[in-house]
Specification:
D-Maltodextrin-Binding Protein, domain 2, 3 domains, five-stranded mixed sheet, 44% helix, 23% strand, rod-shaped
């Protein structure tokens, strides 16, 4: 039994007339009659009574009509949902600052792909990867991408952003707008929570060792507001993305780092088997291209 058999039966049951049902279905009447007989034979019960040109439902036919309508309605919903999902592109991210940074690229992609419904969803960094694995997200904006992530997903580097040092306004180095990382060898540091932002704590550790010291980390945070609060109420220093300056930061000043400093790489990740039409790779390319063109302030 196929869905078309149900559609044929419902058309006859609703019109109670083979000729009118055949016209609705764009079939010949003999072909429609044959399909209904085949269906009755498969079910082992008559569905229709035929009285010359008049037709009526048997009790079995009435019961089968109700279920057939339910099945066809469910099938139509499934088809509509599948088509809608095919037009959707679910973009995961872990902060609106990133959406703002990539906004020109997202707008350009939407113009080039007008049939795609681009939707965004904010999650933690860990939840973004899990969302990709479960098929809940199509593409995710993540931070550093290690070798294991690269084996599991397709990835593309989108941007490499020099991080800023965040200091309290009363810090002894607060008046300096440019620092070498070695200038902060004796500082207390506020790092980023590894579970919320994988790779950012180790980024500090590696850069500091390269500058000749090991950072004295006195705390960690899982958000920019918490970072600003910690550094504004202590002599500890932190490190933030350049666009973090757009957020309220009373009592906090920023200093750029001399090269090599601290550089955070941003990547896109997506499941290879989900990119059957190449649109995910196209979006990643658009993000990478536009990000390279915009200011990093």
């Amino acid at each position: 039994m196929e869905l078309r058999h149900l559609r044929y039966f419902v058309a006859v049951a609703e019109t109670l007339h083979f000729s009118r049902a055949a016209a609705r279905l764009h079939l010949t009447q003999p072909a429609l009659s044959r399909q209904i007989r085949d269906l009755e034979s498969e079910l082992g019960a008559p569905l229709l009574r035929r009285h010359g040109t008049a037709t009526s439902l048997t009790p079995a036919g009435a019961a089968f009509l109700a279920r057939s309508r339910e099945i066809l309605a469910a099938a139509d919903r499934a088809i509509a949902e599948a088509r809608a999902a095919g037009r959707q592109l679910r973009l995961g991210h872990y902060g609106t600052l990133w959406l703002d940074f990539f906004a020109p690229a997202l707008r350009a992609f939407a113009r080039r792909q007008p049939g795609i419904d681009l939707r965004t969803e904010e999650r933690s960094a860990t939840a973004l990867v899990e969302g990709l694995r479960r098929g809940e997200l199509d593409l995710a904006l993540i931070g550093p991408a290690d070798a294991a992530l690269g084996r599991e997903f397709a990835t593309r580097r989108l941007a490499a952003l020099p991080l800023l040092i965040a200091l309290g306004a009363a810090h002894p180095l607060a008046k300096r707008r440019r620092l070498a990382l070695a200038d902060l060898a004796a500082a207390d540091w506020i790092a980023w929570d590894e579970s919320a932002f994988p790779g950012r704590a180790s980024l500090l550790e590696r850069a500091a060792v390269g500058a000749g010291f090991r950072p004295r980390i006195v705390g960690s945070v899982d958000g920019v507001a918490s970072m600003f609060l910690r550094v504004s109420t202590s002599n500890a220093v932190g490190y933030v993305l350049p666009m973090s300056r757009k957020l309220p930061h009373a009592g906090v000043v920023f200093a750029a780092l001399k090269e090599p400093g601290l550089v955070l790489e941003m990547h896109a990740a997506w499941r290879r088997d989900a990119d059957t039409d190449g649109r995910l790779g196209a979006l990643a390319a658009q993000l990478a291209g536009t990000a390279s063109e915009r200011p990093r302030g």
